[in-house]
Known about the structure:
heterotrimer; B: alpha/beta; D-Maltodextrin-Binding Protein, domain 2; 2 domains; 4-stranded mixed β-sheet; 3-stranded parallel β-sheet; 48% helix; globular; C: mainly alpha
Amino acid sequence: MTAASAPQVLAAGEQQPAKPTSVHHKRQALYGYAFISPAVVLFVAFIAGPMVFAIGLSFVAWDLLTPSQFVGLDNFARLVNDPLFGKAFGTTFVFAFASVVTHIVGGLLLALAANRVMTRALSYFLRTAVFFPFLISWAAVALLWKYILDPTFGLVAYYLSKIGITAPSWFSDPSWSLPAIVGIDFWHTIGFTFVILLAGLQTVPSTLVEAARTDGANTWQVFWHVTLPMMSPTVFFATVITFIGAFQIFEPMQIITGGGPDNSTMSIVMYLYQNGFQSFQVGYASAIAIVVFAVIMGVTILQFCFSRRWVHEQ
Amino acid sequence: MKFVYMGDAEQQAQFKQLFAEFNKKHPNIKLEPQGIPSNNWATFANTVSTRIAGGQVPDIIQIATEGQRIFASKNLLEPLESYLEKDQDLVDDYFNDIDPNLVKWNTEYASHDGKTYYIPGGFNTVCLYVSKEIFDRAGVEIPADGAWTWDQFRAAGEQIKAKTGAFLIPAGSGYFTDVMPWLTTNGASTLNEGWTQAAFASPEAIEAATFVKGLIDDGLAPKPGGQFDAPTQMSKGKLATLAGGRWPVIDLRRLKLVDKTVVVPWPTNKGNGSPIGWDAWPITKVSKNKAAAWTFITFLMSKDAATYFARIGGTIVPARRSVADSPDFLDNAPEHSERLSDAASYATPIPAPDRGSETQKVIEEAWLKVLSGNGDPTQTLQEANAKLGTLL
Amino acid sequence: MKMKRRLSTGSLLLDLVLLIVAIIMVAPLVWLISSSLSDPADAFSLPPTWIPNPLSLQNFKDVPGLIPFGQMALNSLVVATVSTVGSLFVSVLAAYAFSRLSFRGNRVIFVGMLSALMVPVQLTIIPVFVLFRNLDVVDTLTALWLPALINVFAIFFLRQYFNSIPRELDDAATIDGAGHLWILFRILVPLSGPALSALAILTFEASWNNYFGPLIFISSPENMTLPLGLVTLQGGQGGSPAVVVFAAITLVVLPVLILFLLFQRAFVESIATAGIRG
């Protein structure tokens, strides 16, 4: 990700191996093909082949049992006119946006607050507490939080009532269900963002920060004009990776809400799963999958374009 | 021979004992049972469909009401007429011992063309498990004959709330356990009797949903929107009743509540009501072991097997009345557990058309929407009703 | 970075805020573990009891009665281990070829693979399901680890890492008559410890926690991995007792917690390196 390593990679790739005799060359090629063959076979079987097949499937109607039927662009036409798909698409974007904002802002605040001299015990406790949830399976997290958020017998409702707030019916209220999942997701993965941003923060040379301070810059100015630009590649990486992860959100919807209430937590992958593996409309599900792919591809390409223009390179 | 059934690990352990019993009697038939744990029957039906799609075709599948039409209509099952004739005596003995409704429904609902594809097995209805302790503490009488009305039930709840602070009943949105009891005790259902038309927006259905919402609004039922453990809260004195078929008995035993609870029919507004869902055993069309499969089904129909199964546990009411009324079923269970089998006489088969899992989702979502106050009852049920119409 | 600890009120206030944040972050897990250690009738009190009294292991004893926990744990371990070791082996070989060997198509194949880095699993899952159905491996562990053997990110990451190791080392070995396998496994692999351990941790973690794949491919409890097994506990009519569900979750979380506390630095660094370098 750092700008420094990129040219080095390419340069090394161009290097010619020593002693290019023809026998040596052939031998090397032989080894080359042998070494990449397991990866290539697996790649074709599980990534490239399925990709092509998925594109093919998007033009058929198939229930996995009876023979498939070619339907041309019908699946895509249906996508355009399917209000639920539109809603799922919108919900997923809202979720991804909320996820990115909460993770980056929260992660930056935590990283800035943690990136100073602290008692060892506090520092250790903080890092452990914040990072550990990231290592827990979504399945466990979702099961646990459904109980924690119970509006009557749950922990959150209890402590909210202590400060005079009546907890909403998180998973039966369409206006609270998505925020609840944003919150659970934040608890689950903020540790990842925190660690990455902290690592990025620590690459900012302290001499620069001190120089700025000597020049009379206040804390905010130092952050805005020195620290943030210097760590922008990391922030950018964290943003993109959070967005891509959030765009594929599935488990909490599948385990906690089933996409409800009122489809308020119907994410696009949840919708894909329901179509593909619950109603067995494999062709339609493939069309949805292609849209997911297109969005992720688009975001990645945007990342490359924008990072060239905006991100500070060392 | 492959037998696929729905069950969590605990139920599987019980089934395994039953299968061992079968193998003792028929050592030449190799039975390969496979239990599949599922959230609900619709999911189970999908999982089995996935397996069949995956090329694994079982010989016998245990299918509940919710999946029976789906499997039959997909042309996956073998008509059983010739087998029934072959073992006429046993079949007659069995059908005479089970509730006549089950026999009637088995042809009415589990077939799409009038042929017999299934032999009906054990079933579940829904009654209330009532905490004697909490009712006592609040000074509320539990009706000895089991007859009470919605209004009496609600009044009991108000007194319990005032005296003990406990909730009256959980108000969930589970189709079978939470939605159907309220509908059927008000003379309503989700679909018409032939499952050909949606009937979810009838005035009676709207009245039922509104009544339950009232229980939540007045603090007699906990707010939906999360998850809690109802039997645990009952044992802590926080919940006076809970809904269920036979299955809560396992939790009640765990929490040592068997002697502190009593089974009471659902309170009524128009008349007695309960949903009913039953297991049924079909033979698959592609099975290569049809004779052996039938032998296994005759074993399941036998009184010995039913008694044995009731004795080792099981979360289901035995189809044979002679077994359901015996100590094998009634011991170590809350008082009046026979009311669960009585309910078969007035119960409504859980409406489960071909697109059962989508239907269920529409119903549960609408119910939850009304209960949590996010939609006007009439309008919400009308919208859901229109959606149901498109799924039939 | 050198900073002096300033004992200002601001700094103390910040410490306090961070302490509260940390406590809020761990509270759900403490509640999980203490509920699972409670007597079934004592659990889920409000206000919450953070330290169960009396302690009870009953809920843990009840877990195997509901799901074949031991078998599921073994399945998770097998799948995660085979996925990790297998994918690292495949990736190391490919990365060496892409980094060190010249052959026709080297760059084309590498770039081709790299361009698929962003292919989400949802796009390939249906075709892979159809493929596995034809291979008759649906509902087996093979369906879980076989697709995990190809890890484009690992190939890319390792190739980058190998490129940063000076070629003089392998040239010297070549002069001594060493073959490519020798160079790879005796020189490059030992020098790539940090990269390999980072990848191993990430791959193992991803596999251990995977829910989507098992949900699609596995239907028999005895073939399930832990995350899917946990969710089936919620199933069945009425669901399983919550305390037992909590005990099962605790059994899944606890080994990870212990490993994390022991190797915290490695865990955190693996994320940071993969993040920063990737």
